[in-house]
């Protein structure tokens, strides 16, 4: 039986929390992306936008898939060579970025611009996820979190068309 929408949303939030990513940490990234473009933007608005994004089925699917692969890699459960590729966060792999783009594309081209930018700067939680601490694998999670923030930021940009966002 396929899980219902509420269950999937709860599971997504639970998995993110278990992997050390809070809603507020993602909201901070949204603020980082949009603060110069939307006057008086509040953290509450950023958080709300993240929640809306996380309610989308295709985005939940990407998150639960990516986190599962990170976890299996930590447990050394993947087949070779995928195990080594994900374990070492190999630069040429690229499927983590493809998964991230499937998230940002939901909100149009502004989303991929935002994602490219945040992936390069790696502010806040993204720096932490990219630390490559021994035994901890965030090959997918860093891209997924950046993508959710980029998507949430794009939503806000579309919601404030009167302000010259881009
Ligand atoms: Mg990655």
From TrEMBL:
One Pfam match: PgpA
Record flagged with keyword Hydrolase: yes
Keywords (A to Z) from UniProt: Hydrolase
Annotated ranges, domain YutG/PgpA: 26-158
Class in the EC hierarchy, top level: hydrolase
EC numbers for this chain: 3.1.3.27
Keyword Hydrolase on entry: yes
Gene3D superfamilies in UniProt: PgpA-like
UniProt protein name: Phosphatidylglycerophosphatase A
Species in which this protein is naturally found: Loigolactobacillus binensis
